[in-house]
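Problem statement: downstream parser choked on a complex file, so we are re-checking the raw output for the adenosine-5'-triphosphate run. The parser issue turned out to be on our end (a line-ending mismatch), but while we're here, posting the original submission so the record is complete.
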Amino acid sequence: MNHNVTNQIKVLSERTLFLKTEEDTISLGYDFAHLLKPGLVVWLNGDLGTGKTTFVRAMLRELGFSGPIKSPTYALVEVYVVSRLYLYHFDFYRFNEPWEFEDASLGEYFQKETICFVEWAEKAYPYVPTPDLIVVFKFSKKNAQGFASQGRILKFKAYSEAGQLCLSSFRNRESTDANY
Ligand SMILES: Nc1ncnc2c1ncn2[C@@H]1O[C@H](COP(=O)(O)OP(=O)(O)OP(=O)(O)O)[C@@H](O)[C@H]1O
Ligand SMILES: [Mg+2]
């Protein structure tokens, strides 16, 4: 099941980053926390263990949340109210059918004053609201020198003005077009 939202809506801009270590993913999460605006919907796509939850956890820490941050794999959604933001972290990995999203009335969480990060959004497609931004997490095959690496490649795709605004703030980060 790999629905490609790019078939439905247009990508406005793209950006690719190479994150060599877990610390890089965390540091990106810290930076991203400062870009969050109410209403933002971000899909975090990519295989198991590529760093989606690590990224969200870093954002929440930067926003000042000091409690436990669990993966929402079992609860479907974890709710955080922090720094005057309503941040919802979803994970639909366990869905067998996309309509389970409707069945659980999860659409109610997506409001203009809430921020939604969604892991495994494809499993709730087409019921899950379309994103402002998709971040695709991938294992990298090699690092810049061509040696085996445990790094990650993150591809950001903006689908709205709000998504584009987030991307433009990565201007100062080193990006990559190489075949990692
Ligand atoms: N840039 C990186 N380089 C190497 N390891 C990383 C990097 N970013 C994160 N990791 C590690 O990868 C693992 C990612 O786990 P995490 O739970 O965040 O993945 P996930 O994408 O949310 O997986 P799932 O789909 O199962 O929820 C963690 O052990 C983390 O330390
Ligand atoms: Mg996860």
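For whoever reads this later: The chain has a mean pLDDT of 90.
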